[in-house]
Amino acid sequence: MWHADEPADAELVRALHRGDVDALRVLYDRHAPWLAARLRRRCSDPDVVADALQDCFTSVWRSSGSWRGDGEVAAWLWGIAIRRLVSRLRSPGATHRDPVRPESGPSLAAESAEERVLVGIEYGDLGGALERLSPEMRAVVEATVLDGLTSREAATLLGIPQNTVKTRLHRAKAQLRADLAGGAP
Amino acid sequence: MNRTQPTWHADESLLTAYLDGRTSAAVSASVEQHLVRCGQCRSGVRQLSDPVPFQGIWDSIVTDISAPAPTRLEVFLRHLGLADRDVVLVRSTPAVQGAWVLGILLCLLFATIAAASGAAYGSLLFLWTAPLVPVLAVAMSFGPHADPSWELAVASPSSPVRLILLRSGAVIATAVPLSALAGAVLPGSPWASIAWLMPSLAGVALTLALATWWPVTHAGAGVALAWTAVSGATAADGYRSSVGSATVELLSADVLPVYLVIAVVAGAVFAVRSDRLSHFGEFS
Amino acid sequence: MSTISSTSVMFTGVTRRYGNSTALDHVDLSLQPGVTGLLGPNGAGKTTLLRLLGTVLAPTEGRCRILGLDPGSHEDRTEIRRSLGYLPQEAGYPRGFTAFQFVDYVAALKEWTDRSQRHAEVRRVLALVGMEELAGTKMRRLSGGQRRRVALAQAFLGSPELLVLDEPTNGLDPEQRASLRGVLSDLARRATVLLATHQTEDVAALCERVVVLDSGRVRYDGPVRELVAQAAGRVWLADEESPSALSSWRVGTGRYRHVAHEAPLGAELAEPTLEDAYLLLRGGQADDAVAGMTA
User: Fold this and answer.
1) Range of the domain at C180
2) B6 to chain A: which residues are within 8 Å by CB?
3) How large is the average pLDDT for residues B189-211?
4) Residue B242 — left, alpha, or beta (φ > 0 → left; ψ -120 to 50 → alpha)?
């Protein structure tokens, strides 16, 4: 599978400077699916997600220079994609937006043991603590801590006032801290 | 790049659950953090995704990137209230794209420095340069010599005269403020720093009128030479009588109407003969 | 479209002089919808004829009607230009422009005022010539053939009634030429297309009718197959070169192909192509044959 990564993403981003559309196409083929999947979890309107994805790669094309040349291209792409989503939601056309529901429908009540292990690897105890937050607080933590948005961007994404983002984040951090320190079950 | 290799990979059932939104928040977050670092699992997501919508989005991206982002100049012109189509036409002006603005700036800078430093003929140097700037700008803005795509412009239903005036307007609009700024820092009467606009206007009108006979580049060069000869002769006269009076003589109140007459007559000639410019390379 | 007749172009006794030299000498030409080929050596007056058709040049003498209108009048000329697609021999581009910007600029010249409509049209014509993927590339970075395709794309803007194309296939590889032929024959169902070229195979593949121009005069004007038929019995294959032939060249098989009025020694007759006929027409005694044809 690894041979599919040639040329490396970093090479491709550099090729964008030279106006190489093919390089953009390869980047798109590699990254659009997972970016779309991740965006879909933050916005339930598929049209807005498609628009954000389009904006993301258009902006990658125009501002490939903003990549500093180190770190994961994937992380850089996600940063652009989530911000494009936020600005799509901010635009006047996007009237109907659903506040993000991280778990729409019944979640897997009985998580498999394997998944617990995975969560443990990525986040340690934090994973479990995250799970115990209320959905509203968890959404704020995801948007700010995991997706790296500012409180203003998170407010737009979640469709709640900026101050509410700040309070919820404050409370969520306090709860996480207590949870981790207290060694909850 | 020495990145941490992932220690685990998401299997198909986990990725499917994630894509269907059936994973818990913590698992989703884990998968997402993992995907950022793992090309193998990203390609797993790709294989589980329906490619059809992605092709549609890609087409939109190609559309977006082929329509260039508006340049600062275009944004500025739109702010001035220019219609979008006219913005495109102005942007195609050969002189607007070139490095000529820089050239003009340097030219004026030297003239201004010379004039401001009180050098004997400094103000004459400025006076000689300033009116030429719009003339040369116009001479470089259209016609088969200056514009490589002029034949296409001529073959289009757009009025070449309108195109010429639009482009001339654009180059003058960039050239005049620069000259005016330079004129403003000159010592002496503020009148002289504005009065040069008169010979400049006459020069542009004359260039356009002559362009209905000869290529505009030739016309502009001819007008520039004529102006140089006139200002040179006046300077020589001024040298014989009293130093520095040349400026006054070229821009004195009884000379200024002459420029106005030239401008009006040349403008009329251009208006009458302008249809000749709607053919390519024909100067008869 | 003219409702009076299907004739889109009617030139009568059209002459064009530059100073003392005569580029076109009393040319009569009428064009109908479909693709007409224009062949002729350099300096034959092809470009002058195309410029007259493209209304960018006025005739010294003679009468021109284009799409039923008079290119000598200002209003009519503008009207003609609204229905004209023109590819000049030298289609320069504004410095620093991308392919998209260049075609967008011509679209603006062609009075496409609405930005999004104009952009959609620009994309359509770039796709026609297979350049949509390179639309964002600067013109100067494109290859000669790619640049030619972009220049051709602008001629397709607004699906014109009259297409005047000077060497549209210059610099294209065989595959691109083939796909371009498809586009042109599609357009020619409605439009009148005049295609000036050096490539006899383009004419053979696309045109029913061909006009051959030499020294400012029309040497042949008629169906392609009749011109080819003129060469029947005058094209030979032989093992040796022949000094008496009008033209001979070595073909892939190692033998020599001759265009000659009389059979070279030990030669066998070959099936003539348009190229043979064109060479024959341009050869020494071709004039009589043409006089007989056009009389």
Assistant:
1) 9-226
2) none
3) 82
4) beta
